[in-house]
Specification:
Helices cover 56% and strands 7% of the residues. By secondary structure, the chain is mainly α. The strands form two sheets. It has a three-stranded mixed sheet. It has a two-stranded antiparallel sheet with strand order 4-5.
Amino acid sequence: MRDLMEHHNLYWQDLSRRGRMDYLLNTGHMSDCSFVVFGEMGERVIFRCHKFVLMTVSPVFERMFQGPYREATASENIVLDDVLATDFMAFIQCIYPQEADPLDGYPLAILRALIYLSKRFLVTYMEKSCLENLYKRLTYDLDPDEVVSLYEYAYQIDEMDILKRVKQKLLSDPSKYVNSPAAYKLSYNIFYNFMNDFFIIIKEKTRFDVIERYCHKLGFDQSPITGANDFVDLQPPETHEIDPIDLNAFDFSKYYQLTPMQLLAEQWKASPPVEVSGVLLQATEMELEEVYQDLEDARREWKFKQQFAEKLLNSVKYTTMSAYDFCVGPGASNLLSCKKKFELLSQICVAEHKVRALRLSSNPFAFCVL
């Protein structure tokens, strides 16, 4: 750009306001600070900026460059290792004065990043503009996955106004969003809140079906979550075909009642020592300790998933289902033990009998009809 301007005997000061800002940002002319961010492939990207422009919109940048911080004297290559290059580029471009509002042209992911960065650096005017743009988009027919992702995003940035508007969108057509693939990518606690928000609207059978799909994502495909006492007396098989340190061979849904040392002993007992060139190889104490620690971590993770799955399943009001809905739904699922299924079905049958008796008692001619 500079060569072109010099060829036509022009100066960058002769450009439009937007042109001047683009020139300063793109060329780094007169820059007195720089930031290092990283691309999606981990590559370093450097942005050369101007302290005065940044300080005019952000008290965070003002304290950074004028306060008792290292950045005040060493303003070159300030590393921001938790910000993607594409997000930071959009953030900086919005800070430098522009002639038109560029927010409508950004994809939703960039807009979300701009809201996060404007909150982080206290750029209040940008935060307000981005939120207004997001609210406007929520009035459109957004992709269901995008709406569900905004549900978790609202919790992440603690923006309850976004959450309120997203809930209104979700409840307008529950079946459209409750089966969205994005719903099964929600983190544990957010998914629990997500299901509770649909509690009044969706049927309990649908609720259980969604929970079952999420539990399968957690790894509970064949193992009953409830009725854990059914496995107290379960003994491991006498032989295993597993590598001494191959943790993937363990079925933690089956052996979760064993202690880590019991698991380690079973694994080592089932795996004979390896003989190489007449030398019997034995595991060192350090190797055993590493295996033990890996087993401990895996057991802890499995236990957490199990407790969360139990929490989800206990939130279902099974007795509000009909006997038929229960039999074709929870009754056919592997997540409940046979004992639990029988107990719930008995409660449903009793509840249906009471309702039928109540209807008959309130209608003396019902017996004649029957």
